[in-house]
Amino acid sequence: MESLANCRIDGFLRAPPSKSMMVRAVAAAVLAGGETRIENPSSCEDAEAAIRVAEAFGAGIERVAGRLSISMSNGIQSERLDCGESALTMRLFSAVAALVDRPLTLVGSGSLARRPMDMLTGPLAALGVRCAMEGMHAPIRIHGSYKGDRAEVDARESSQFLSGLLMALPLRSQDGDAILRVSGLKSSPYVRMTLELLAFFGVSLKAAEDLSRFEIPGGQEYRSGLTYAVEGDWSSAAALLIAGALAGRVRLSGLRQDSPQADRAVLVALERAGAHVEIEAEEVRVEKGALRPFEFDASACPDLLPPLVALASACPGRSVLSGAHRLRHKESDRAMALVEEYAKMGGDVRLEGDALIVFGGPLREAEVESRGDHRIAMSCFLGGVGAGRQVRVQDADCVAKSYPGFFNDMKSLGVSWA
Fold first, then answer.
1. Can you give the pTM of this predicted structure?
2. Which of 15, 265, 284, 361 fits as disulfide partner to 232, beta carbons 3.0 to 4.6 Å?
């Protein structure tokens, strides 16, 4: 894919649905039983992976325009749960699988086979669940069900398995509380997304204000027969809003200003970088201003770092983007990928400790590798948009993992390519 960005971006779009909330909603539908309707469903590859796992749990799937119906009328259909490349699906459904008193195996493909999953073993063992894997990686073999009621959860690497436990433990057959103590939590907004979903489905628990401790009553039931609307995705929206700040203006609708999504913080970064930002209800407008270097800590929202590198590359001077340690175990080592791929474009991105230091300046025409990573593909494409240079991104189709409509949306905003 090649960006030809000597054009002006100008357009109005509706934000795509949240991948993270979609995957959580599918898991909740499995736990609810009966029928759950999901409006504004995501069609990205991660969402399809969650749907595939739901089918293995016995879900019947019906798709109509703008709606997905999940009916839990069958028992387990397969002991092999294929999570594709979705780490969120694997970590959430590992906790769900432990509710089933029979062995299940979660498998992944591509980069997921290399991503660490060792944060599962200690908590599951403490909760009486047998769990085995090859080193730190999938496949993960789980044989439930929950028998213990105390566990320590290390959330330094990811909060996704913690979210899975918060979703699964209310369905323990025991009436007493399960107690989770959490250390090293970096992604508290994502946990709050899970708590909001649980409240919608009628599940209750007690959480410490800093989310370091949870008391989860067992013997609960999820409400079935509900219709859940997936909100707009701030992660995908960030790329579009940054495109507006780089090369014109963009208006996006369907974005909750009170959303717990961590990537809503992109608005802070845009304002610090000198972009003009206007907010009204669920609509955000961003227009290019006099761009300037900025500092931003993305420890709680690491998915923002790749597109922010594109923004910082267009800001003359030295920008500091903190939180780079959160990028090491994604679909690629994103920190090094950004350093090396932007170097091909003539950019100056350096990894110093926990920060990406970006020295903004002109980028040149180049061919870059996405490394099969959707965030790197979108970042490099945005780099070309900001520079007004042709940037050829190899294996650009990997954007389908989270945002299959990215290039169509960019075209509708005025970007063209060969």
1. 0.94
2. 15
How far CA 384 is from CA of 201, 327, 361, in Å, comes to 43, 22, 12
Whether 180 contacts 160, CB under 8 Å: no
How would you write the pLDDT of the chain (418 residues) with one tens digit per residue? Answer: 655 545 689 999 999 999 999 999 999 999 999 999 999 999 999 999 999 999 999 999 999 988 999 999 888 999 999 999 999 999 999 999 999 999 999 999 988 988 889 999 999 999 999 999 988 889 999 998 899 999 999 998 899 999 999 999 999 987 789 999 999 998 899 999 999 999 999 999 999 999 999 999 999 999 999 999 999 999 999 999 999 999 999 999 999 999 999 999 999 999 999 999 999 988 999 999 999 999 999 999 999 999 999 999 999 999 999 998 876 766 668 899 999 999 999 999 999 999 999 999 999 999 999 999 999 999 999 999 999 888 999 999 999 999 999 999 999 999 876 6
For the chain, domains (ranges, CATH) are 2-14+256-413 (3.65.10.10), 19-214 (3.65.10.10)
237 Cβ contact list (under 8 Å, min separation 6): 15, 16, 252, 255, 263, 266, 284
